[in-house]
Amino acid sequence: MVDVAERLSFFAALYKVDENPEVGMWWLYITIIILSIVVYKLGFAKKLPPLKSLVIYLFLILGCTILTFFGVFLPVAEGLIVASVILIIYKIRLKQQKNEEKVDGIS
User: Fold this and answer.
1) Which of 48, 65, 69, 86 suits a disulfide with 52, CB 3.0-4.6 Å?
2) What is the pLDDT of residues 5-32, one digit of tens each?
3) Transmembrane region positions (predicted)?
């Protein structure tokens, strides 16, 4: 017999989706939404009018519904954390490089 608890992803196990599925799935859903928004803002967001931004976020939230079901057994939230860390490092390095170029241009 297969033990479901052994196959859960980290966040699904953290939120105890196997013991309390209703609350656990909501927490997993909210986590995936927040991480998806962070990754979107860090890597892909452009300055858009408010209505277009609203449409993008609605579709992002709708897509996160599907990702949540995958996230019970697959490392979806964990992958989003890795993506956000990589994008944060990229943004920091890009900012440092621009500051260095600005300083080199002045002197």
Assistant:
1) 48
2) 889 999 999 999 999 999 999 999 999 9
3) 24-42, 54-70
What DSSP character marks residue 48? -
The pLDDT tens digits of the residues spanning 47-58 come to: 999 999 999 999
Cβ atoms of 15 and 27 closer than 8 Å: yes
Full domain range(s) for residue 94: 4-106
What predicted TM-score, i.e. pTM, was given to this entire model?
0.88
The percent of the chain in helix, strand and coil, each rounded to the nearest 5, is 80, 0, 20
Contact of 28 with 21, CB cutoff 8 Å: no
**Whole-angstrom distance, CA of residue 75 vs CA of residue 28:** 11
DSSP 86: H
Separation of alpha carbons 50 and 18, rounded Å: 39
Number of domains in the chain: 1
Long-range contacts of 42-45 (CB under 8 A, 24+ apart): 42/84, 42/87, 42/88, 42/91, 43/83, 43/87
